[in-house]
Request: fold
Amino acid sequence: MPPPTTKPHSSTTSFFSAIKPPPSTPPPPLYTLLFLLLLVILGFYFLHHHHSPTTTAAAAADFLTPPQQTSLRFREQFLSLSTNATVSSYLRHLTLRPHLAGTPASADTAEFVHSHFRRLNLDPHRAAYRVLLSYPIRSSLTARFPNGTAVALSLTEEGAKKTGETEEGQNGAVVRPYHAYSPSGAAHAEVVYVNTGSEEDYRQLAALGVRVKGRVVLARKGGELSRGGVVRVAEREGAAAVLLFVGGGGGGGGVERGTVMNGMGDPLTPGWAAAEEGGGGERLGLEEAEASGRFPRIPSLPLSFEDADVILRSLGGQTAPPGWVGPGILAQRVGPGPTVVNLTYQGEKKEVTIQNVFAVIKGLEEPDRYVIMGNHRDAWTYGAVDPNSGTAALLDIARRYALLQRNGWRPRRTIVLSSWDGEEFGMVGSTEWVEQNLVNLGAKAVAYLNVDCAVQGPGFNAAATPQLDELLFEVTKKVKDPDFVGATIYDKWAAMNQATSIERLSGAFSDFAPFLQHGGIPSIDLFYGREYPVYHTAFDSYEWMVKHADPLFHRHVTIAEIWGLIALHLADDSIIPFNYVSYAQQLFKYTDELSHLLDGSTISLHPLVSAIEQFASAAIEAENEVKQLREGDGRDGLTALKQRALNDRLMLTERGFLDADGIQSRHWFKHLIYGPHGDYKSKLDFFPGIADAIHELSVSTTMSRSRQEAAIQHEVWRAARAIQRAAYALRGHIFVP
Ligand SMILES: *[C@@H]1O[C@H](CO)[C@@H](O)[C@H](O)[C@H]1NC(C)=O
Ligand SMILES: *[C@@H]1O[C@H](CO)[C@@H](O)[C@H](O)[C@H]1NC(C)=O
Ligand SMILES: *[C@@H]1O[C@H](CO)[C@@H](O)[C@H](O)[C@H]1NC(C)=O
Reply:
């Protein structure tokens, strides 16, 4: 998975005021109103919330009903079962060999996980799919420098090889650095340095008189664009090929592999599961998939920082704009040339079998409600960080849950532990599974809890949909911080500023994307550290983990504890621990940011404000109901039915944010609050449809301004309707009482 590069930022500079003189009539002070409203709502909420006897997880045991006491006991037991030795042995085993999806070594890891679940009596299952993945055959890059020397760059990773392994082939060896789904092709042309490869970067180049048409562009990762986004923008600009490197060179010769496919899941079965039987048997032809824009049309290759640096230093031409230097990058000039490169790439797209593996712990009282935990298993190379630190944690949770079961624990709801395949190629395994089970997941999935790169370095991080904020805070208050004696995770992570510690899930860079952005299932993503230097390189090994990221495996244990405890609450609490007041607050904040951005336009945010008001009052009502129903232990039939009805509303509210038509240029993405924006830098990491429309306005030369503003207004209405649907789902009745 690509790790999120930077924390979401918010900017208050108006996009409109920058391009348009201020209007004669000032816009209504929308955000002032919003803040007043927010204060009123918060005041109301806190009065009623914090003065009533609290029955959250933090409550003293004597306030708890007998079933709650039992749950508490099992949660304490779960925490008492930690051993770093087992986690490290799981990771050691998983990372013995590289295990790229679709290879025999990858199938072996599926077997390892399956047999682990079987030994623990955890009802193991498999789901296999035939999908189109992409592998390299050969690649070459020669540079001819101004002094006349021609150098063949190695394109491999010196020093990363291990005993008995070669660079070639896919069985047991590290796959050569490549971009999955890049077309085969060649380019022989001058090099232009394009900074991070954004549209803005090309505009700056154009202002300098530098054209990239027919040339090979050299781009550094680190902007807001995805890898595929960098290639797509370069293609639109007319480049012949792309060379992509990571600034800083911390990888010590490492080269970052990755996918450049557009969209999610198997490219031959867009929107349906690549299953063998039934309707899943249909496949697009390769030409159809190509015509649908899933793959780039120009070849690209990843480059080590060292190789990129040699090329960068040799460029002449225009002086680089200020700000085009990154960590360790001294880009004096952008070209074009005089350095000329000859790039060739040959790859193959191949149908292979991938396997998701599951363990199922059946719920006793509500077996048809699912709490789904997931991590992918396939790796570009050895995968010690990405993703098997998460797999080791998952296997450890399985071990602990199996022990709890032996001690008499039966969860109220069903827990599913999932080990996905093919994530590195575009969330393929999880996407196919979600597409296959969409109706059942829509009706029965309580939440999806993702862990991908569990441990990349120091520092706990969490991202979530906002109704899970409170649960994250409660759980992290129960888990010790392995790096600070006497402190909890909460103390070091969120005690100072709850409001900004949890990130959101708009990116589509790990397996939560199909669950949340296609299925509308509340989701969490947990990880330690960020931006580690060996990402997607052959250096992502067990040895690197022990040396740099988690020498004693205590961070692995901590992630397992937080992840496992969150699932225990979601599976065992009589009322699902969701708090939609946090969601309402977050939506108000987004609208406030949006109002700053649209300051000076004719666009009205009133529909959004009014929908959020409805949503906020539904959230407060639901909280009051939660308090009343939590007191009852659900033993009598009527209370149990009422709890179930309330839980259904809490579960289904997130689905309201889905829209049948999805985001206009990426219909598969159905969630109108959280989803990836297009291939541009955006100030909004929410409301992806609105973000797209605002971006269109800034770049379109063909549509009139009023039509562009109407397009933004339409997206505002759509987001408002989504929020209103969610409010209706939370209220639960179809007629106003
Ligand atoms: C020619 O230039 C390249 C790139 O600047 C450099 O690496 C190489 O050592 C130079 N060769 C000679 C013979 O000067
Ligand atoms: C570019 O490199 C390829 C592979 O080494 C070679 O076959 C081809 O002739 C080269 N093209 C040019 C123009 O040098
Ligand atoms: C587990 O933790 C203990 C105590 O910190 C440490 O001595 C031991 O080496 C660790 N084991 C592994 C496998 O890292």
In short: Residues 140, 188, 342, 344 surround 2-acetamido-2-deoxy-beta-D-glucopyranose (ligand 2) (CB under 6 Å). The first helix runs from residue 15 to 19.
